[in-house]
Structure formats: structure tokens, C-alpha cells
Amino acid sequence: MPDHTFQPGELSDLESWDFLRNQELGRLAFHLLGEVHIVPINYAVDDQRLLFRTAEGSKLLGVTMNDDVAFEVDEVVGEEATSVIVRGSAHVLEGSDAYVADTVRLRPWLEGAKFNVVAIDVTEITGRRAHLHRPWVGMQHVDG
User: Fold this and answer.
1) How would you class 31 by CB atoms within 10 Å of its CB: exposed for 0-12, middle for 13-18, buried for 19 or more?
2) Which of 36, 47, 128, 136 is the most buried (most CB within 10 A)?
3) Strands 116-131 and 25-32, how do they pair?
4) pTM, 2 dp
5) In whole angstroms, what is the distance from residue 16 CA to residue 124 CA?
6) Which helix (H) or strand (E) holds 144?
7) What are the C-alpha distances in Å from 98 to residues 49, 52, 53, 71, 91?
8) Which domains are assigned to the chain?
9) How confident is the model at residue 55 (pLDDT cuts 50, 70, 90)?
């Protein structure tokens, strides 16, 4: 019996936020010295903003110099793909505000001290779900 729960097309804001809450890894796009950089980060959702931890370095410098960021999370399960993109402004949480990171599932995945907590205040969120057509899946590669 076919599964009729799949609904291709645009996700509502609520569906997009639910998707983000159920993921942990995405890509942050930020500006640094006239260039756009994209890096993978693990994150958590706190209400209607994203949080991540970072050490001193290019991400921290970039969001401090220019708070304009974008963030993307994708998932492919079988023949269904989901993608959510947010745009917003990033800022370092200072003092007691940074303790919010201890109340969500946000721990560094890689070794090293990541004491800086950054929040992305989301100004725009878009989500999309699609059924994939990949005829090459299952084709065998033949050397010769």
C-alpha cells in the first residue's frame, strides 16, 4: 500500500521549524573580509532562533564583523529530500545569556574548547520537500 503522507512542495514555517528541531548538523554561510564562507556546524534550536558554539577563529570573526548569515539543513531519506534555509543576523551571547546553550542539546562534536555561544535571530525561513527522480541509483558501474 503506498504511503500518502509525503507532501511535495513548500513547507510551512511550522514544518520548517519542526524539521530544524529534529536535525543537528547544517551549513553556516557568513561573510569574512569580502568573501562568503560556508562551514558545517552542529546546532540547536532555542525557541525561534538557532544556537551554535564556536572557538576563536574565522566563524567568530566573521559573524562579529558582519552579522548577516544564512544557514541550511538538508536531509535525504530514500527518495525524499527536505531542505530548510534560514536567513538572519548572528550575534555572540554574552554573560548569563550564554547559559541558554546549557539548556538545549548543544555540545561540541569535535574536541577543543568552544566557549563562544552564537545565536542566529531568524528573519526568514523557507523549506522545501521533494520526491527525487534519480534513475542512476541502482545502476552498476562497470570498469573496463
Assistant:
1) middle
2) 128
3) unpaired
4) 0.82
5) 11
6) none
7) 13, 10, 10, 20, 11
8) 9-131 (2.30.110.10)
9) confident
